[in-house]
Amino acid sequence: MDADLFFFLLIATGMAGALLAVVLRHQDRTCASASFGAAALSALFGTIVSILVLTGSPMSLQLPFDTPFGHFGFTLDRLSAFFLLVISVVSFAVSIYSIGYSKEYDGKYSIGLLGFLFNLFLLSMTFVISASNAIFFLIVWEAMSLTSYLLVVYENRKDGIASSGLLYVVMTHLGTALIMIALIMMGLYTQDHSFDFSSYSGVGALMPSALKSTLFVLLFIGFGTKAGIIPLHVWLPYAHPAAPSNVSALMSGVMVKTAIFMMIRTFFDFLGVTDTWWGLLVLLAASISALLGVMYALMETDIKRVLAYSTVENVGIILIGLGAAMVFQSYNLSLLAGLALIATLLHVMNHALFKGALFMGAGSILFATHTRDMEKLGGLAKRMKWTGIIFFIGALSIAAIPPFNGFVSEWLIFQSLLQSFQIADVTVKILLPVAIAVLALTGALAAVCFVRLFGITFLAKPRSEHAEHAKEVPRTMLVGSGIVAFLCIATGVMSFAIIPYVDQVTTPLVGVSAASSIVNGFVISPTNDQFSTMSPFAVAILIAIMVPLVIVISNRYGGKRTTVVEDTWDCGTPLTAHNQYTGTAYSNPLVRVFSYIYRPRPEVRTESTSSPYVKKKVSYAFVVVPVFEKYLYQPVVGSMVFIARRVTRIQAGSIQAYLAYIFATLVFLLIIFR
Amino acid sequence: MDQIYIDIVLSVLQALLLLAVAPLITGIIRKIKAYAQQRQGASILQPYRDIAKYFHKDSVVSRETSWIFSVTPYISMAAVLIAALIVPVFITRTLGFVGDLIVVVYLLGTVRFFTALAALDAGSAFGGMGSSREMMVSSIVEPTMLLSIFAMGLISGTTSLGSIASALSISGIDLVRPALFLASAAFLISTIAENARVPVDNPTTHLELTMIHEGMILEYSGKKLGLMELSSMTRLVLYFTILSNVFFPWGIANDLSVISLGVGLVAILGKVLFLALVIAIIESSISKLRLFRLPNLLTVSFTLALLAVMSFYIL
Question: Which residue of A has its CA nearest to B156?
Fold first, then answer.
């Protein structure tokens, strides 16, 4: 089969989907089925293309015309095919889900616009992954940013959406500016001064090392902004939740991966990892992101914000793997770099799958209850059985419960960090155990976070009318989210079969194939089976044997007994929705334990009548100070506003004054450039 | 190929041994505590009778609960048993290929994940409180356990539990390093915290504001309570076994000869009984800590574990 053909079909169906959305914009349901159906088809072609490339040879498709900046076109090698596969599979599921989910907007917002932007967003992500030219890449990168911005502000009549979008568009452009500088700079250093990515490979070797390091920092900040590493994450917890839930699933699960893709591409392929401190810098930023991300996730009561902060955490985990790979590579420990990079890519894939499932689950909750505040939910496990199961699978995966997929990648990252004893340098030896500790702590806190999220949202009594009357969502939504939930289990249990393919992706980047030393039958054993072995497949089999065994034996022993359904034991105070545990109460002990980081500020406000002894109202609020927003961004924004106010003074509105400025400038320039 | 069948038989035998002695160990701890408090105390066989009685009773289930509540007892028991299949007890040969120490820690984490959810399921504030506190404690304890076993993994050059035990038991005294003591101290504190013992939690109180674990299983009754109790007793012995065989594996059998098997069996029973004595003495001599003093203790153990790992890299 020809990959080119399917890539062409991918573009054609995506474009057709966008077009259909516009044409059919007046019939909401037809429009949704047509445009999201086309998007699903396009994603299916994307899946086929990437599988063809991963199992066969690279694909290259040039546009039939030339530009001043070289040939624009699409190429897919193994690395880009892997990311395209991740994007396509999740997009496929989300597209199916969107058919049902968009009912939410029927008659309120334009479905045509949603379908149009959605298709363009999917296409732009595909193009970002497959762009063969730096300038073309920057164009589609910008297209991806703009379509996602428009999707973030789609529900424009809601409060706070506009400012979330503004924050996103500002931050993403700061990032893009840095990326632009770095990519163009690299192009100037290529042998034939071309902007084609094909000539970028190994360009780092031709640069002075100071410049190379500068470019690394620029790229890390630039792509880090899109990926949402702390402290560049500020936009993420606003923008991801603000978008429609199907788009949030794509932004959180998939769009951040394009940044990870470009980091791997630019660091390993273009620049070449030579300095150890690059890896250590990535590790440092990653550790902070992972730990703080999950800690902030623990505080949120808005389901989608919890998930958005959890994306910050998981990007941190991914970058811990990447940082470790870079450190190993800088010491020429290629086998270990390969191991760490395989772990990184697996976590990229796994996060896309489980975050897709969780965000779609959050969307289903929003669809059924019209609230994303977990304090107003509860009891959904019985009312929305399938959504509950899908969300639960996502939660088990993200909490790294064996044999789900999140566990496998986290285990591999642990194993690769443990291999750091093979490095001779003492500084590195001290720093890597710290990363191990951070990862362990993050994992444990993530479990708390998802017990809280699932428990408060889905269990116990409903806390509001909305939750009380929640109904299961339409079948397309269950199918869409069910696909990724199923894949969360499948990719975990069958990870031994997937790793060899991932290894083929990393082999050209690190120079060594690591698969033979990682996979042994259905057992995974990093570097050698003396060090450690693990088999999610065997764990799954043991669970399949042990759980029924326990059920049968315990039901046999002692004979059949009756079960009486009764009220929860309530100490005599009738149990209502109000005396249940809430999400805020649930995380309160942790806030006290980590008060140094959270800086909690309980506010008690009292309104008295004329007499101070008679109180009209006492209100209690619990505020957690977002450290970076308060101490990093607010001063910057404040000073910008201050400068801007000063500058407005020259904007007097009188033509004469402006003419005078122009004259003065001309004179000034003539003097300088005479 | 015969190797693997022998390993399967051995690991099943070891898991069954843990399951069988678990109530006995709990009974012995209670008896020692009773002596320390100048009481007669119940027979050391009482936990067996308790569990048998739970299995013969009808259940009352809250109408608020969902499927999470019903599956949790089975999942907990199954996960503990799977972990028991991996952990070496009297011989270093187990189903080690299934998973290493990280898998064991995460399997025990699975038990906690489900129990904490089941606690929220009935909607009672006691359950929520227990669940929230349990997760707070575990968020520091779980990384501590991982780090302390990592330290041992690094010393012995493997993270597979069976291999750690055999490497340490063969090489003997050369491996006694600062890391060993730091890590074992950290792991002992973790064992106390994870198994709801004084000073972290009080295993014998119900319905007081001190409780963590008991608050979580308050809504269970009948067979399911029996399963929850049995799985937490097994979990305690499992921790004792890990503590014995990862940090002080001397005596454990490395081959199938009758003598070494006998020595292995006696050694592990001796070590587990010793740990039961230690726990009982700790529980009798200090009082329960206030909840928000706990993090100090747990952070100390976390730091010990981190130092253990670092000392391996630096020294």
Answer: A531
A619: enclosing H helix or E strand: strand A615-624
Please tell me whether residue A438 adopts helix, strand or coil conformation: helix
- Stretches in chain A below the pLDDT threshold 70: 1, 528-530
Q: Tell me whether residues A534 and B113 touch, CB distance under 8 A.
A: no
Q: What is the pLDDT of residues B200-224, one digit of tens each?
A: 887 776 655 667 888 888 889 989 9
Predicted-complex ipTM score: 0.94
Q: In chain A, what residues touch B306 (CB-CB under 8 Å)?
A: 433-434, 437
**H or E segment and range at residue A76:** strand A70-76
- Could you give the angle at the alpha carbon of A266 between the alpha carbons of A262 and A271, nearest 5°? 175
Reported as a single tens digit per residue, the pLDDT across A355-377 is 999 999 999 999 999 999 988 89
CA distance B206 to B210: 9
DSSP string of A286-343?
A: HHHHHHHHHHHHHH--BHHHHHHHHHHHHHHHHHHHHHHHHHHHHTT-HHHHHHHHHH
B133 in contact with A at a CB cutoff of 8 Å? yes
Q: Answer yes or no: do A581 and B59 touch at CB < 8 A.
A: no
Whether the predicted pLDDT of B1 surpasses 80: no
* pLDDT tens figures, A75-87: 999 999 999 999 9
What SS3 class is residue A18? Answer: helix
Residue A112's identity, in one-letter code, is: G
Q: What residue of B is the nearest CA neighbor of A429? A: B313
pLDDT at B175: 66
In which residue are the tokens 């991982």 written?
B146
User: B92 and B250 in contact (C-beta within 8 Å)?
Assistant: no
Q: Cα–Cα distance between B106 and B88 in angstroms, integer?
A: 17
Contact B71, B114 (CB under 8 A): yes
Per DSSP, the residues of A496-560 read: HHHHHHHHHHHHHHHSS--GGGTEETTEE-SS-TTT--B-HHHHHHHHHHHHHHHHHHHHHTT--
Q: Which residues pair with A373 in a beta bridge?
A: A302
Q: How confident is residue B173, by pLDDT bands cut at 50, 70 and 90?
A: low
